[in-house]
Amino acid sequence: MxxxxxxxxDDPVLAYxxxxxxxxxxxxxxxxxxxxxxxxxxxxKRVFVHWAAEHFDWPGRGYDDLFRYKKxxxxxxxxxxxxxxxxxxxxxxxxxxxxxxxxxxxxKEFGRSPSQLFIEMIPYYLLQIDHSSYSRLDDAPIGNxxxxxxxxxxxxxQGATEKxxxxxxxxxxxxxxxxxxxxxxxxxxxxxxxxxxxxxxxxQEDTLDGRVDxxxxxxxxxxxxxxxxxxxxxxxxxRH
Length: 240
Description:
Helices cover 45% and strands 14% of the residues.
C-alpha cells in the first residue's frame, strides 16, 4: 500500500520537490503577471520558457546548462516545463483560452497551498503518468510502484548505488557497461528520475578509478510524506 501524508503548508520538507517548486512558480507567475502567451501549437512562448529556465533551479538543468548549446529555448527543449504544463492542464489547475494559459479557480486556490498542490500533483505524477513516454528508449521496466517504493524504502534507507537498487529487483548482472544497459536506462528513466523530480530521492555521483557511480538517498520529504507497508522494517532514526 502507498499512502501520501498531507503535510502543513509551512513544512520545510516541501522545498525538496523540484516539481512542486516549478508548479508553484508557474501558478504564481500567472497570478502576478497575467496569462502566459501560447504558440500556435499551444506551447508556452519563449519569453516564459526563458523565465522558467532561470527560476526553476532544476537539478542538472540550470540556466547555464540549458543555454550552453542554444541561443533560444522552446518548451520542448526544457522537459520539466513541458511536464509542468501538462500536469497543470490535466489536473484542471489551468486551461488554454484565447491563445493563452490561464488559471482556473482551482489553480488559484492550489497555488496558495503548497501542501494541497503536493498531494494533488505528486501522487498523480508518480503513479498515473506513463514515464516511458519521457524516456529516450521508450522502454518501461517490469514492475509497479507498490513494489518499487516498498522495496526501496528498505534498500536505500542508508543509501545505495543505482546498480544495487536495480539489482534488488532484477538481479545484479545488468550494468551500464554491458548488454544490460537498456534495462538499467529504463529503470533509471521510469523509476529513479520520477522519484528525484518529485523530490523523494536525491542522486549523487561518485567517481572511483575512472568509474562513475550514482548513489540514491531518501530526502526528508520521503520520510515525511510517504507511509508504506515496509516502514516497520526500518531502523529508528537517531536524533542527536
